[in-house]
Amino acid sequence: MIQRHSRSRGKQAQALVEMAVMVPFLVIGMMGMLDLGRAFYYQISLTNAVREAARYGTQPYYTGLIPTCQPIPPNPDPGAFCLVPGDQKIKDRLAQELSGTGFVVDPTKIVITPDQGTRVSNCGTSGSCQYALTVTATYQFTFITPIIGDLIGNPLTLKTSSEFRTEY
What we know:
Structural class: alpha+beta
Largest sheet: 3 strands, antiparallel
Radius of gyration: 27 Å
Number of domains: 1
Number of strands: 3
Number of helices: 4
Strand content: 5-15%
Order of helices and strands: HHEHEHE
């Protein structure tokens, strides 16, 4: 009976050692999965925000009878009476869509084509201009888990774009 008691004690010690060896790997694996989940969440949120910003940019900004647009240089905004929404308004819409997601895209990483000057000069007051508007945004996602970041690449560049046809 004494011998049996020492055998069960040895098995308990072996199980404790095995668990001590495996727990760090399990924790890192779980953290890695959470990190990848965060990356997918950021990508989906960014894609949705870019889509909404592009959709906003293709809607008539002002539907009055006599739209007037300010010349782009030196004004950064075409004005409240222009059919064409300005680049800053589109960027603001993207930021508004990202509010509450936990991250913000640097405005210099948002590209809108064609640029505001081209949109205003070609379509500002015509009311019958249709072309493709593309909004592209880039975000540098940083992993928390060091091993996953080393395997995939840290930071991970999330880039998405959306193209809509204008309706003005």
